[in-house]
Amino acid sequence: MTESAGTGRDAEAVSRFVESFAAQLVEAGMARMPARVFAALLSCDEGSMTSAELGEQLRISPAAVSGAVRYLAQTHMVSREREPGSRRERYRVHGNQWYEALTNREAVIKRWEGALREGVTSLGAGTPAGRRMAETLAFFEFIEAEIVEMMERWRVHREKTFGPE
Question: Is the distance from CB of 52 to CB of 89 less than 8 angstroms?
């Protein structure tokens, strides 16, 4: 198989890209199977595939696809969609998946901030450990504010570059 169905693309080159990009995601901390599934979805013109299509392209089991998709859905990197009139699900990556994933990290940062505030109170702000907690809390508060501003700048930039959604 040297050409992807109807696209004129070299299927082996696409496969090499998927594995290469997945390796970069793994190096950044993502688990291997979710990284491969995400890269495959990202490289697909439709931006969506069924479990069977993912399994065939990546040569992985339905269980591996299911586990990878579960992780990717929890992190807001992909969404699940029912095929009309079918029980089959399609897994979709959206153009704004990075925005969604980063925006959803804000909730995690908020929880960390709450836990760190408790840590400062429990340890005492004047202790070395309390000071480290307070500095960590200040870092996350700073990051949270920067993310909000950065995401607004990204929305403006995206619209200028790619047009309205």
Answer: no
CA dihedral over 65, 67, 68, 74, signed as positive or negative: positive
Q: The tokens of 137 are what?
A: 């809390």
Taking CA atoms, 36 is separated from 44, 72, 154, 155, in Å, by 12, 11, 26, 28
Torsions phi, psi of 35, nearest 5? -65, -45
Angstrom distance (rounded) from CA 70 to CA 139:
31
Phi-psi region at 85: left, alpha or beta (left = phi > 0; alpha = psi -120 to 50): left
**Digitized pLDDT (tens) for each residue of the chain, 165 residues in all:** 444 555 678 889 999 999 999 999 999 999 999 999 999 999 999 989 999 999 999 999 999 999 999 999 988 889 998 878 888 889 999 777 777 777 777 778 889 999 999 999 999 999 999 999 999 999 999 998 898 898 889 889 999 998 987
Residue 59 tokens, joined: 């040569």
